[in-house]
Amino acid sequence: MKAVFTGLGVMAPIGIGAEAYWSATLERVSGITELERFDASGYPARLAGQLRDFKAEQYLSNRLLPQTDRVTRLALVAAEQALGDADVDPESFDDFDMSVIGSNATGGFEFTHREIQKLWTHGPERVSVYESFAWFNAANTGQISIRHGMRGPGSVLVAEQAGGLDAVAHARRVLREGVPLAVTGGVESSYDPWGWVSHLATGRISTVPDPRRAYLPFDEAAAGYVPGEGGAYLILEEEQAARRRGAAQVYGELAGHASTFDPRPGSGRPPGLARAIRLALADAGLQPGEIDVVFADAAGLPELDRAEADALAEVFGPHGVPVSAPKTLVGRLYAGGGPLDLVCALLSLRDGVIPATAHVRDVPADYRIDLVRGEHRSARLRTALVLARGNGGYNSALVVRR
Amino acid sequence: MTIDDLRRILTECAGMDESVHLDGETLDASFTDLGYDSLALMETASRIKEEFGIRISDEEIATVQTPRLLLAAVAEAARSQVAQAA
Questions:
Q1: Which of A5, A86, A319, A388 has a Cα at 20 to 30 A from A80?
Q2: CA angle (A15 as vertex; A12, A16 as ends), nearest 5
């Protein structure tokens, strides 16, 4: 069975829609700005990748607004775009022939912040009944499923930044069990004050105030990352089923995937990223030399950057494969990060362009990685490897092939 | 509380389809047909309590089927609250 991507939906700080995001990536538009939806002047870090122009009421009916957090709205719009791009009419499918498999790491923070504020200021009767599910990581999958009548197996995977790729891989599993189509991906948004302190609590957020110098993965000046909101949903279909319905286009095949978990800190054993890459390549039936480009996890913390660079050098050899980190324009999107990089990878394959990693200048020589910087690189691209690591020890590696 | 109040509160609590016009014609339509589920009605009851001080229990709101019956339940609850106070 081959699983192919036939539709893309993107909600990114630099563009709504896959093509808008891709153009902005190639034009190096940065979506990283000061936090806008609350006064963040008292916090040590104040930068995030935000969807500044997104007005949910332009996209969604007023029936959905009272019961959804911003993150669920982003998911609904991304899923709808992906369906539109794939030219899928859910009405023409049996309900049980469509699955929704998503990822979301932090849940509906903004909604919950507001309702908890009502709880302590006005009492329990003033708390919205929709708080019962709007907070939940699974709300996105549920709302997409209800909206489009998709009653095939539905799932939510939570693995911090690695969860988005894990979800896409799980969608392939569902296809293998006979479901012809899945809506899969992930989004994130938790940029109210309460959400913000939860990000800060990791100790991994950059406090550098300059948006061009705050998030510099693999750079000597790496000092943490900038979080961002949004992500992507994609349509994954069994290839023959996609052909039979006359799918508008095939962006690429989900050729391989693997997830691994890091050993406990202090065990002395190596982290699991290299093993995830090897297992994903084996799943795809590819040798390291057959991978044309890597979209890096790009943690932005020296120790983690070094670990990723070491894993790449170990599997591909020193400077053995071009590496890019287009997320330097949008920040780390947690569950949305992997799926957005996946969209970027598929469009890179389509157009034969590796987008340059923005803002990064000085990569330590002993990282031994070929990080694409400065100019975008034109190349004949057939395969791409997308990597994601989640705080807590999650590693996910996914291979796509044209 | 009037039908206009109910229309406004329902819209604030759970939105309203453009095709739905809550008026005399639809007073006897079922909430299900109008697109309001049990959560929407619980939210509505809580807003009625907040705005008008009239309490309708979760158990009662679950049995109210139409806008006309909801308005009647509100009127009845208001009368009994007044009677209790007196």
A1: A388
A2: 80
Query: What single-letter amino acid sits at A60?
Result: L
Taking the alpha carbons of B63, B67, B70, B72 in that order, is the dihedral positive or negative? negative
- Whether A396 shows a pLDDT value over 90: the answer reads yes
Contact A61 B11 (CB under 8 A): no
In this predicted structure, what is the pLDDT of residue A267?
Answer: 93
Judging by beta carbons within 10 Å of its beta carbon (0-12, 13-18, 19+), is residue A116 exposed, middle or buried?
middle
- Would the pTM count as exceeding 0.90? yes
pLDDT in tens, B9-59: 999 999 888 777 777 778 999 999 998 999 999 999 999 999 999 999 989
* pLDDT tens digits along A153-191: 999 999 999 999 999 999 999 999 999 999 999 999 999
CA distance A254 to A398: 8
Partner-chain residue, chosen from B13, B39, B46, that has the shortest CB–CB distance to A125: B46
CATH number of the structural domain A3-245: 3.40.47.10
In order, the DSSP letters of A29-65 are ---EEE--SS--TTSS--EEE--TT--GGGTS-TTTG
| Nearest CA distance, A64 vs chain B (angstrom) | 7
Q: Most A CBs within 10 Å: which of B16, B46, B54, B61, as the mutation test of the A interface?
A: B46
Residue ranges per structural domain of chain A? 3-245, 257-401
Check if A3-245 and A257-401 are the same fold.
yes
